[in-house]
UniProtKB/TrEMBL annotation:
Protein name: ABC transporter
GO molecular function, one term: ATP hydrolysis activity
Keyword Nucleotide-binding (UniProt): yes
PANTHER family (UniProt xref): SKFA PEPTIDE EXPORT ATP-BINDING PROTEIN SKFE
InterPro entries in UniProt: AAA+_ATPase, ABC_transporter-like_ATP-bd, P-loop_NTPase
Keyword tRNA-binding: no
Swiss-Prot/TrEMBL keywords: ATP-binding, Nucleotide-binding
Residue ranges of domain ABC transporter in the record: 4-211
Length: 212
């Protein structure tokens, strides 16, 4: 059974290649690492899977359909962290998380509990009343991960989730992601951390070196 499939998927802009023809398939519950040097196309591939980047050729399907970020079913199936999401300067971390949890169906009370749980899970509960502009870069990354994982999803796409994290936080991240995969979530993760990939993923898709 396949939940994510790419066949000769490639992207070029003005004849410059962003992603060389790439084929792979992922079964439900798999954890696939996308690896390769800077510029090899990892982010581009994740953007294609998230429906944020059109293919120049080939095909990609998520549960048999082309990615479409406007489609409610597609959005409910897939959560992605591809750079920092848009955030409000006037909401605290707890309020951001509760808002996202409530928008995916939790009651206000449950959403507030889920927000506290997510802050605890990522070790940032003492920052719950801070605004995003009051965080360090590593704290911001932990918060962005919490914001991505608080909502339900069958498929998680993460672009270098280890970026800006110290060794202790990378360990914590590996624990959280390994637990999420163990609970049945399909994970596709671009990463430069062999350690994180080794802890969390069971397969690797190595993109060819700088194709530009
Ligand atoms: N909008 C764009 N226009 C032209 N080229 C682009 C554009 N965005 C990215 N590229 C090029 O596409 C190639 C792939 O970029 P991408 O960001 O997917 O690489 P990556 O593997 O994620 O790199 P890194 O490890 O540095 O994050 C690079 O050569 C990059 O310069």
């Amino acid at each position: 059974m396949t939940i994510v499939e790419a066949r000769d998927a490639h992207v070029a802009i003005d004849k410059v290649s962003l992603l060389a023809p790439t084929s792979f398939s992922v079964a439900p519950g798999d954890a696939l690492a996308v690896t390769g040097s800077n510029g090899s196309g990892k982010t581009t591939l994740l953007r294609v899977l998230a429906g944020k980047q059109q293919l120049t050729g080939g095909s990609v399907t998520i549960a048999g359909e082309a990615p479409n970020e406007k489609d409610a079913e597609f959005r409910a199936r897939l959560a992605a962290l591809l750079g920092l999401p848009p955030l409000s300067r006037s909401l605290t971390l707890h309020e951001h998380l509760a808002l996202v949890a409530a928008s995916w169906g939790d009651s206000v009370e449950l959403a507030r509990e889920a927000a506290s749980d997510a802050l605890r899970q990522f070790g940032i509960q003492r920052l719950q009343r801070r605004f995003v502009h009051e965080l360090s870069s590593g704290q911001t990354q932990m918060f962005a991960l919490a914001l991505t994982l608080i909502r339900p999803s069958e498929i998680l796409l993460l672009d270098e989730p280890e970026q800006r994290l110290d060794a202790e936080r990378r360990e914590l991240l590996a624990d959280v992601l390994a637990a999420r995969v163990a609970s049945g979530t399909t994970l596709i993760m671009a990463s430069h951390s062999a350690e994180l990939v080794g802890r969390v993923c069971d397969r690797e898709l190595a993109l060819a070196e700088d194709v530009a």
